[in-house]
Structure formats: C-alpha cells, structure tokens
Amino acid sequence: MKAVVATQQSETKPTPYPRIGLHINGKWIYDRLPNFKVYNPSDEELLGTVPCASEADINDALAAAAKGFERWRAIQPEVRARIIKDAMALMLERKEEIASTITLEQGKPLADSRAEVLRASSFLEWDAEQSLRVYGDIMPSGPQMQRHVLKLPVGPVAAFTPWNVPISSPARKISGALAAGCSVIIKPAEETPGAACQLVQCFIDAGLPPGVLQLVYGDPATISSTLICSSVIRMITLTGSVPVGKQLARLAGVSMKPALMELGGHAPVLIGEGVDATAIAQVACASKMRMAGQICASPTRFLIHHSVYDDFVTSLANAAGSFRVGDGFEPGVQMGPLINRRRVAEIEKLVIDAKAHGANVAAGGYPLGEQGHFYAPTVLSDVPLKALAMSHEPFGPVALCMPINDLDQALKIANSLPLGLSGYAFTNSLTDAARISQELECGVLSINHFGAPGADAPFGGVKDSGIGREGGSTSLDAYMVTKTVLQRTALI
Predict the structure, then answer these.
(1) Residue 399 in contact with residue 378, Cβ under 8 Å?
(2) Which is it for the CA torsion 351, 356, 357, 361, positive or negative?
(3) Cβ(144)–Cβ(488) under 8 Å?
(4) Cα 475 from Cα 482, distance rounded (Å)
(5) 268 by DSSP, 3-state: which?
C-alpha cells in the first residue's frame, strides 16, 4: 500500500511566526544567546531561535515567582477566575494565529491545531470554575473547640511541557496552578516554543499581575535541576517521557516536593470476536495517525481476536494507504510530519526490527519525500512480542497488529508492559466490557470508541505512566495542601 501524498497548494497562508522570548517578572526578554533553532518540520525552513535563560535569569524568575505567589494567593478567587477566563477569551479571539503557529512549529494539520486551541481553552474555563469550589470541612467538635480543614495553594510551581501539544499542555498546567492560587514558572519544549509565548501573552493582556507567571527556555537539564532544587519551588508537574519523568521525580524526592506527572504510554487496543472489524479499523486509522502518532494516548498495540483479524488488518491497511500526508496548511491533509529527523530514524529502526522478527508490512513502512520529516502511515501485521516496537513506544504513525485467541491472552499481553496510560477495547459483550474495565491496567479506558477525556474528567496513568491526575472534579488538588486547624475558643 502506497501512502497518498498531498501536492495541492496551500489555501491558508500561515501567520508570521512569533518572536520567542523569556518572560520574567512581567517583562519579555529577547536579547539572550539562542540555544535552539526552530524549524518547520514540513519543509525544514528556519522559523526562529530560542533564547537561553542564564543562571541570573532563572534566579530572577524564582524571586519573581516567590513574590508573585504572595500577591496572587491574596487575590479573591472570583478575581482570579475572571482573569483566567479573560485569558481564555483572548485565546479564542486569537485562535487562528495560535493554530497557525502550532502547525508551523509542530506540523499537525491546521484543523487539528485549531482543535488543540479549543481543547486548551476548555482547561482554562474548567479550572477557573473549579477555583470557586475549593471547599474545606468543618468537623464536629466538643465544648470550647473548633476543628476545620482548609485547602490552601501549595506555593510556586515549576511546570515542564512537551513539544507534541504545544498549547494544551501548558494551558492545563498553568490554569490548574493559577486557579489554585499558585504562581508558575513554566518551561515548554524548545522545539515548539511559539504557542506557549502566545498563551503567556493572553494572560498578560488579561491582567495577570507581574511575577505570577514566568516563561523560561534553555538547557532542559540545567533549568529543571535548578528549579526543582530551589527552596522557592514547592511542587513540580511534567508531561513528558518516562525517563525524564523518573529523573525529575528523583530530584523532587530529594527535596521532598510533590510531583504531578503524565508520562508515556503504549496503548493497547483489545478487539473482541463478533464486532464489525472493518468499521472499527476505519476509525482506528484516524485515531492512530492523528498527530502522526506522536501523542501519548495513541492506540498502538492492536490485539485482535483471530476470527476478525484478517478483516481488521485489511481494512486498516486500506485506510492507511489512502491517508493524505503533507504540509498541515495544505487542503485535505490528514497527517503531517514527524517533529524531526531523529523521529523518522527511530520509526525506521523499529519497522526494520519488526520485519527482521517476522512481521509483515501491510501498509507504509517507509519515509516519504526528500524534504520534511514525513513517514508513511504504517500497518504491521503478525508482529511478535519479541519485536522491539511491542515494548518500546513508537511515538509515530505505526500500528502493530497481533492475533489473539481470547480475552485472557489479550489482557496478559496488554498488561505485560510497565506502562499504563490509555487503553481501548471494542466488544459486544457486557461481561467482557466489565472485566476489561476492572483488569486492564491503565489510567484511562475507552470502550467502543477512541475518545479521550475532556476537562471535566481525570486524566493520568498507572505504573510508569505517571503520578496523579489532571482534570475532573479534583483538578486543583495537586496544587493545594490540606491543613487541619484545631482551635480552642478559650485559653486553657
């Protein structure tokens, strides 16, 4: 199966790429030495450079965050909520500009970038409302004694976000921290810095006081270690890879600081007997190839009952072979490029290894074009467990298909990895659905669809896939501390 490469001219012209700067204590800083160059992954054109925060800049950011926290925590929740909602409104007004930036720097189709801006805005709206629902408790007490529980902001937060969702991840962490009354120092990925700058500008224009939100870029190891080890920072949050998460967790552990982490996955898809495998494969392809598979919740390990296996693989391969790949600004494009050449090389290595272990290429299996970081939507069938891709998250447009005999075998294979972020299952059996809900080891399970939780539901992983949850009714809990107050009404 050959992938369909889009060749039409763009109908939508990108807006100018924003200037990348640090934002510390209410001021933009641009005159630092660049430590990274930002390229468009579709045509490898240089978009801009990223300034590197100096040691003095980081210290200034920490000092500003400490003062900003004292100021922000004293502001009424209603006022904090209004500022966050005003920032959300500005995001929506600037949706086209921000979406254009995301497609330029990350490569995803423009429609997907617009959807990410909308998703990011939903996090701001939800957390702003949650800030008005931070309730304590009053416990029954005896004579001359009052006992109550307070929920208070934990303090300045250090937040680290990835390149694949350049506005929704920063928005989720910033809104959660601000809604709880914390100040934030955020370090987004240097590969995709533009959308985060535009997000910060929305908060500035919404009236966020100076020092409450700092934005820094630079050497990731230096910045993370400096921030986490500082006595100013009281909590850390990361969305990223498992190795990076474990390293930051070690640093946080030494300093006895709470950590909220959403890390990598390798999502299994359990497809039972008696289902419409052909129809499922069509929606599976769209979900698998979204963002070129560069998303932690991407369905990857397809464990398919042998009775529907051939129908599923044939349908999935046909869908992948007709998928339109190209620049995200081109009309009709369904999948953009990988973020860089390293990702292309990694996918190629995994495909070659799988073939060497006996897997068959049902669709794709090769890089596309001579310019840009494109890889054909790929379907591998009969992939054995010993293939590297079955244990290492591909983070690319590769679907791994394996026949299974029954639900017992599917659950055993699905749970065999130390990862557990998202999982998917398709079944006509209520009994099997109930069992999968109980036994599949993951933080988020979607049954008979490929949807993901919105702002109103918790998201996070188990095992090596993370610590804690973002979203839902407890979205602010990670950014708060619980204080029990025991007060006598009269001196002894």
Answers:
(1) yes
(2) positive
(3) yes
(4) 15
(5) strand
346 is catalytic: no
The DSSP bridge partners found for residue 24 are 27
- Give the C-alpha separation, 75 to 168, whole Å: 26
Alpha-carbon distance 367 to 373, whole Å?
8
β-bridge pairing 267-271 and 299-305: parallel
pLDDT over 90 (residue 457): yes
Quick one: DSSP state of residue 330?
S
Residue 223: which of 34, 19, 62 has the closest Cα? 62
- Which pTM does this prediction carry? 0.95
Count of beta carbons in the 10 Å neighbourhood of residue 239: 26
Closest by alpha carbon to 191, among 295, 35, 22?
Answer: 35
pLDDT at 257 over 60: yes
Measured from the Cβ of residue 14, the count of other Cβ atoms closer than 10 Å reads: 18
User: Please, what sign has the CA dihedral across residues 360, 314, 397, 260?
Assistant: negative
> Is-contact 439 328, C-beta < 8 A?
no
What domains sit in the chain, N to C, each tagged with a CATH number? Answer: 8-263+465-483 (3.40.605.10), 267-454 (3.40.309.10)
Q: What DSSP line would sit under 362-414, residue for residue?
A: EE--SEE-SSS-EE--EEEES--TTSGGGTS---SSEEEEEEESSHHHHHHHH
Across 344-358, average pLDDT: 97
Give the tens place of pLDDT for each residue, 388-426.
999 999 999 999 999 999 999 999 999 999 999 999 999
Both tokens of residue 358?
Answer: 């006996």
Phi, psi angle pair for 362, to nearest 5° = -90, -25
> What confidence score (pLDDT) does residue 369 get?
87
> CA–CA separation, 370 vs 103, rounded Å?
20
Q: What is the pLDDT of residues 358-395, one digit of tens each?
A: 999 999 999 998 899 999 999 999 999 999 999 999 99
- Give residue 68's identity as a one-letter amino acid code: G
> Which of these, 268, 283, 327, 303, lies nearest to 43 by C-alpha position?
327
In the residue annotation, 296 being an active-site residue is answered as yes
The residue with tokens 């080890």 is: 229
110 in Cβ contact with 327 (< 8 Å): no
Alpha carbon distance 300, 196 (integer Å): 29
CB 421 within 8 Å of CB 263: yes
Per the residue annotation, which of 296, 330, 393, 441 is the catalytic one? 296
φ, ψ of residue 283 in degrees (nearest 5): -75, -30
Could you tell me how far CA 33 lies from the centroid of its own chain? Answer: 29
Selecting among 116, 191, 262, 393, the annotated active-site residue is 262
